[in-house]
Amino acid sequence: MAERIEWLEDGTAGGSPYSPRFGDRYRSELGGLEQAKAVFLQGCGLPEAWAGQSQWCVLETGFGLGLNFLVTWAAWKADAQRPRLLHFVSTEAFPASAEDVLRSARSHPKLLPFAEQLQRQLWGLLPGFHRLSFENGQVLLTLCIGDAKAMLREHNFEADSVYLDGFSPLLNPDIWDVHTFKTVARCCRRGTRLATWTVARSVRDALAQCGFVVKKVPGIPPKRDNLQGEYQPAWEPKRKSTTEHRPTPARCIVIGAGLAGAAVAASLARRGWQVTVLDAASTPAEGASGLPAGVLAAHVSPDDSVLSRLSRSGIRVMLQQAESRLQTGTDWHPTGVLEHCIEHARKLPAAWQAGQALAVAAHDWTTLATAEQLKHCGLPPETPALWHVRAGWIKPASLVQAWLATPGVTWRGQSEARQLLHKADQWQVLDAAGQLLAQAELLVLAAGHGSAALATSAGVVNPLALQPIRGQASWGLHSPDTASAMPAFPVNGHGSLVPNVPLAQGMGWVIGSTFERDSRSRDIRPADEQHNFSKLQTLLPVAAQALASQFDHHQVQGWAGVRCATPSRLPSLGPLENVPNVWVSSGMGSRGLSFAALCAELLAARLHGEPLPVEQRLADALLPQYAKHHANVLKT
Fold first, then answer.
1. Tens digits of per-residue pLDDT, 146-182?
2. 599: how many CB neighbours lie within 10 A of its CB?
């Protein structure tokens, strides 16, 4: 559950937030706004220090009620010389509720618009990393829920500014000890500036031991002094491999105009790259991303596996993209999704059960389906089923078009890449006749199962473990009789049904799809149509009965595409081994909607040495060279 906060009626606007756990206030007696500005923002030389920079990264220990983030975000927005991208990474072991975060900001009217945006995204804060996006992806908050030391060990980036915040060292010594500061120093470069409100001798000594040169500076009453410093160790710090060759945004070629490729193009373009997207088809999303509508829902497992955790991270990023880029009700709809557990009752992690510490945050994601929801689907009350709260349906092609419309992205169809050549630090992409299609400093392979052959052409020694999987979906238009028999939300678990989706021909439904390994055929097969209907009869008997006449009278349309998967069931995302400046983003299987946006942001972050949107060990599980090791990748 969210951290309990007491609000003291002490004459300040809205009251002062107080922590019963630590016996301390969240902010100074005179309010936290001036402290946040003077101690942290100005203490790190901001906003002047970031002027003219392409990116800036702030690391904070102790998110609390988010005031330092809100003040930094507001300063970024008001600054004409602001960097293109602001990263703010913050740790928090005991997250406050979204309501308390908003209440805290109400005493600062200028921050309230920022706090309202933050409050809308503060849900489902289970342990681990959570990437929150603002300002069309130019302000990125990575909120790390858990012990600061453990969370920072999962990072591999260089901060430009460090805010050390938290309750008094006497009341919360763990966040101020030398072991915490060692993990902070791991995330610093020489010259990283640091600021904090405490001048306790134990804090100064621990910081000095970790390579920080600190000094007292005048504070804001009633504080006499604050502390400022720089990371200037007497030894030469080991440089991180992720930042040794950080590229300057230039030109990039993305091969593949499906979800994976379009998402990568948009993420890189937001960072200043000029991106050309090549595709063999005449229109974008002609492959597996051309599905009329797909279901977006988290994967759940009793042990909260790597796949489950990555799916949640991916869905959070995808929801942010859909909300900002698509039209609700036309291109997508966050209706929630019911998962009918046909083969076996899918168990939730024990820590998610009612009364457990993580129950409230977990129930923002997935709960047991209620009897009312089951009745709405025509299912008995004892049916084993889950309710995915943050879920719904999306038209993949609409999202692809929106991503390709990002400034800096150029799409070129009827451009089938067949050969890759590396000359003078440039990658050249040639067609079947050997004609040059495009050339650039950076190349990303996002061509589904076709990425394997392209990787071989680029010089990779070990072939990518990518397998084609044919899928056929069925769809049709509603009559008054069929529409009334449909649930108000998608249902999955044995195939899936998207019950009400606006199509070009009218309001329709989509079911499917089949799963045929090692097949590249896109032919429509009557047998697969019947297979989809048979699965629907098991999944939702009432809906199947309503649609039976359309199947009997051949009024059903078919769609077929070829997805791409890896043996690990996880995407393949990362640089190709021993091949310079070539990356791959592929192998998402039937979870392209869950993974495409996350993989794109992860690729951009690893390329630029930015904070990752997921823990390092989760990101490493996606590296192409690990895709074959199914058992090892899925271990937690």
1. 999 999 999 999 999 999 998 999 999 999 999 999 9
2. 32
Given a contact cutoff of 8 angstroms between Cβ atoms, the answer to whether 251 and 411 are in contact is: no
Q: Is 81 exposed, middle or buried (0-12, 13-18, 19+ CB in 10 A)?
A: exposed
Beta strands 274-278 and 337-340, pairing class: unpaired
Per-residue CA distances from 434 to 65, 187, 437 (Å): 59, 46, 9
Q: Which two tokens stand for residue 239?
A: 């440089």
C-alpha–C-alpha distance, residues 281 and 260, integer Å: 15
10 Å Cβ neighbour count for 420? 22
Cα torsion for 347, 350, 356, 359, to the nearest 10°? -40
Q: How large is the angle between the packed helices 259-270 and 592-608, nearest 10 degrees?
A: 40
- Residue written as token pair 């997207």: 277
pLDDT of 244 strictly over 70: no
Is the pLDDT at 557 greater than 50, yes or no? Answer: yes
Q: How many CA atoms lie within 13 A of 170 on its CB side?
A: 6
Whether 582 and 607 have beta carbons less than 8 Å apart is answered as no
Cut 0.85: pTM above it: yes
pLDDT digits (tens, 9 = 90+) for 464-476: 999 999 999 999 9
| Token reading at 475 | 């769809």
- Tokens standing for 391? 């879920």
Residue 18 neighbours by CB distance under 10 Å: 17
